[in-house]
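protien #1 (seq + structre)
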Amino acid sequence: MADSEYDAILIDTSVYRNYKYKFESGVLKALSQFRESNVDFLMTDIIFREMLSHLNESIDKAKEQLESSLLEAVEHLFFDGSDLNAHKEKLLNQDLINSLARKRLQDFVKRCEINVLKTEDYASIKDLFNMYFSTAAPFEDKKAKKNEFPDATILLTAEGWAEKEDKYILAVSRDVGWKAYCSGSERIQYIEELPQALTFFQKDTAPYALRDLVREDLANPDESAFFMRLVDHAKQYHGQFSIHAEADSSLQFETDECYAEIESIEIDGGLEIIDSSDGLVTFSLSVEVTYLAQASFDFYQFDSIDRDYVNLGGHSCTQEVSESTVLVFDLAYEDLNEIDLNEIDIGDCLIEGVITHVDFGSVEPYHDPLDYYD
């Protein structure tokens, strides 16, 4: 099948989960490119319900963490008569919280004009159970057969739609069952990575020419002034950001001034186009980011005689943390034939999901060795 013959794209829940359901930024935000295109962006009702369930679980966990943090802040922020109490009640409003996941998912569907297929309109129960009892893909793993019912239903629904509409689908998934099913399908083809899948739907030639130019330059990143500009833009975009410090100690302690910043970025994968329109191209670049994290720890111990806490000093710790991720950036151009990468306009340049937690290991108060000598 030629690349241009794909009429639709179907994305598995595993892919959305891999990008942490960040519909408003990065690669998932770029999916809005299908809104005005001739390509059908498909989702089944099963995928919708799976994503809704995962989002609700994440929201419940975040609510528990928020409640815990607010409880600790009662003495200084939410005392009787505080003007902030009304805001606290709004933050913890259960009806509002219950509606967040569905509204966010529905907004994503509307923004991208996703066609949500109903299972009963396209999937045959008879075909589903024939696949199950004959252990056809995705039911090939006998130990986990029952767990494959959602995937089998999704794929049958997509297959039924493709046959009815006489169209061909590119399915994006990280599931081996999907891969096995698609290998025997005439209507659905499989691909694992979303950035690579999006390249099949870029119809203009100019973005590809720009991509090849950037790839050639990034082949020698140590000599690339353009790459250094990307790194500088990413550092400026994220700046110094707050983190949650985790540590172990034999003493009681509190954390203060917990933050991190990007120390270095190295290329460790390929460059892909994920969106393009009107002279603006959005790229994803696989990178390894090294962060420099810092946190201050104040140590104390309860004095049972004086019934008070005794300050035992503090310690400021630094930690390097490296993580593989994706750098997403925009390049704007007017005439591709006159592009100079050293002068091309770089728009947004951000790391997909900067770190939020850093483990500083075992920590103790700092003592100057000179204190032990006269």
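ok now protien #2
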Amino acid sequence: MTRGPAVVADGVGKRYRRWGRTRAFGTLKSAFLGRGLSEALSPSETVDALTDVSFFVERGETFGVIGANGSGKSTLLKLVAGIFKPTAGRLSVDGKVSALIELGAGFHPEISGRENVVINGVMLGLSRKEIERKLPEIVAFAGLEDFMDQPVKTYSSGMYVRLGFAVAVHVDPDILVVDEVLAVGDEAFSRRCLDTIGEFRSRGKTIFFVSHALGLVEELCDRVLYLSHGRVKGVGEAREMLAVYRLDVAAGEGERLAAETEKAQEDLRADVAPAISVEGVAASPPGETGPAESRPRRWGDRSAVITGVRLRAADGAERYSFVSGESVTVEIDAEPSRPLSDFVFGVGVFTPEDVCLHGSNTDVDGHIPERFDAPATVRLTLPRCDLGAGSYLLDVAIHSRRGTPFDYWRGACRFHVESPSRETGLWRPERVWGFAGGIRLSGP
């Protein structure tokens, strides 16, 4: 029998008591005085951290949660980890959970790291024998061989997290819940954590991941939940949800700056759009065929708009079929809605399965924006398009240097590559074979 999703949330809500001066200790006393526990708290004395949150996480999926501080991310992770229970709705978590949510990771400051590992491991479901067997691996992973017998109150915050993460991943959970821990620790440890997460993914483990490092979220996560003020703002593929989030952050910052002066207010209203537009494209772009659901999507605040995308061969002819090794030029027509001095043009090549083969932009390649105040054409030429045989999709975009999307066109063009040779794979690099010693081959 096939098991269902690893995590399912259906209308989940979490309400906390707001501790104030007037009723800090009134709940139990009020009950004894006859008012009853259900009447002890008025709506003004509570705060809803989460409201009507619904989503699901498939087994083996790396699921990200993003949002501003106070949006309910950590509360949601604590619900998934079983630390809290929801006030409303239903939350189903199927599998053994290991959570690393706070820097202390449940350690007692007065006892040694070694003793804390044992206690923490028992709390996460390991037997004493299992802990003793795994202890050398845990210590080596954390890199704390010289500190394991010291009280953890002498540890730095990075050492806390290293040890906590080492315990969490070595209990071999079905679901790993991680909250912001990769931001702490040196480069070597961060890389070790990423390698471990990659290994977890390859083994079909489910990862529930929260981070303000948006690049890391995009790199690791299959899908992303965007929370805003305790409510679901969106659930979808990582790039799309991150674009929505960046636009909202830009809009909020614009409102803050607009309040400083009347003049800046009008300027910033023009500069920052209040919401994102995600829309289906009515007609297939050049070279694209297929059902409506496979057509590209677009999002952005339309500070600038892509009005056309074409592929050209070396002779200037518009084409969507090439032989591997040919020159390919991507031609982008664009128009600003207002004069811009902060803009970046980007191009990405993807497989139909959404694997990124290459992505670059004008900023990465050293082109500093100066002005964009009228319709324009931007060209990117690949002198040798050394892709293997197959079909590919092209993403094109205009965004700010901070990443705020003006117009992101996903799958703007589909093109095909033929290869005259018999090698396999998506890339055809130049190569030279060499031979020495007792070996002989004939050929080119």
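The chain is about 25% helix and 30% strand.
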